[in-house]
């Protein structure tokens, strides 16, 4: 990747993930999160140079669901703003590209997902090839189970190693007030649970979550003015693979490995990694693709197994990683986001304490 | 900021129903033409940006995932943009930014809609929780704004009819246009059914299946292009909320601000004098005079005079929508990119029978939502 202008994450806020947000609409869900992020950065909304958001109409069950959400920004007078129908992690990428141009110094990125309005495992099935695959109605958990079975058959994971991922995620989530699922679980006890879709048990799958997230980016001196310790984006890249599940080795994630190489993950030791793995076995695939060793503090937030608001969980990973650089817990952090069935599309971001 | 140029443009054949192609087939039709125009193959492309309007039009969630294979996007970055009706323009601007930031030298921008796979009237009439139901489609939303414009400007009642006749005549010169109505006339438009007063059936855009693609490149790659290129002089985007007290939906501030930012970046001080041709997003006839004012081609309440005097027809002082525009072809997600692409074709001198003689500077314009999302670009034969 070519050398770009120094851009950093300077603020991050999220709503507590909940099973069902009954009382507040999307604007009411987003408003406090956006205000908190701007407040952390010491920015008034009029000072934001670029705004980008991520969400999905299918998740909300409405066309143009991002349109009314703009009310949470209060875009009067008019602003420079855009939207990706993707996880907010890709909105952050778009904002990073925009700041790289040099004429705008700050950006607000937000995302929201009200997963409870539908059945996510069925809704996500609508992502599939509409002619040859979607009519067969495979749901997202069944597809993930196929991937998990392939990984177990490869001999690189066991059902116990899957349970260990969940146990650690929920243990880590105890320190995360925004997590939905947390607690102490022994892998042995988890293995006593029945299969949901073999070889996956319910705890190998993400909870259904409603939530919202906002991140503020700033370039150069603006970043230093916003916070004492910006989380500088040292590299960011995203890659996609074939959609056809039979066209790829489901036990590997070459698009993650390629994005990681382009983002420069291996060009230094990694203190913390926030990896977007909605299913326990996917963390094992991603850890390998990212080249993360056992010394890395993996998903200290609990990850997507502890809270998974659709279209927001990837941006939350970036925010969580950035937060640890900003608070001094980490010097160098890696964040990852995924999209599509069985890890089809992946984004990797490297954050450092020095630009 | 590095220079960026359009070196390839492609669009599909547009029709009410393209039963002969899948979504992937429709998209590839446009992509293959754009690549042929640029003398490149999918292997030469570094990144892809895809835009379309709501996923519910085709019932496929995030269709860029399924389309990744047909776009040759394997192991490449693929971004999906959605900014309502302005999305085709926003998609092109995202692709421009990737080039201008120096991240990629050859980017493919693609936009599409296969409206026959849904009922747009239904998909455009959502019942939002906590909001009053509208259930009137786009025409029901925009007709009151047109009535407000007519009352405010004192425009004669036939201005909309003139726009409709003009754009449909222009479409007869564009082989890719969806509607080819050889018998179009003032009488035919005036006697067509009133859908949303004052908008008649023939003053309304069709529902189209179609796609558009462009190859955008760095300066170095543009120098190797086989044909003439269109340099991107400036891009701009602006958004404002749908509803707030005091919002002028007839002449939205977001559109005015967007145009002002665009002209400043492009070094344009008198748009009417310095821009040779404009492709404007006019889905209902009366939006031509409304946008002429919003874009600074005419003073407030005076835009209809340009239409009435014939200034906006081919051969006039400022031809608007020589391609036939959205009134003749409306695959919603692609409609904005078609405006941008047609502007590029004009300054490249490749617009065929609807070419504006000597066009050097062109405006591409798109809007979406409740007249609240705007994206625009200026392309030119010469670099600034």
From TrEMBL, chain A:
Query: What NCBIfam families does the record point to?
Result: PRK07937.1
| Record-linked PANTHER family | ACETYL-COA C-ACETYLTRANSFERASE, NON-SPECIFIC LIPID-TRANSFER PROTEIN-LIKE 2
GO MF annotations for this entry?
Answer: acetyl-CoA C-acyltransferase activity
- What is the species listed in this Swiss-Prot or TrEMBL entry? Myxococcus stipitatus (strain DSM 14675 / JCM 12634 / Mx s8)
Q: What is the protein name given in its UniProt record?
A: Nonspecific lipid transfer protein
Automatic annotation (TrEMBL), chain B:
Extract one GO molecular function annotation from the record. Answer: acetyl-CoA C-acyltransferase activity
Gene3D superfamilies membership: 3.40.47.10
Which residue range or ranges hold the Thiolase C-terminal domain?
Answer: 249-373
- Protein name per its UniProtKB record: 3-ketoacyl-CoA thiolase
Q: Whose protein is this, by species?
A: Myxococcus stipitatus (strain DSM 14675 / JCM 12634 / Mx s8)
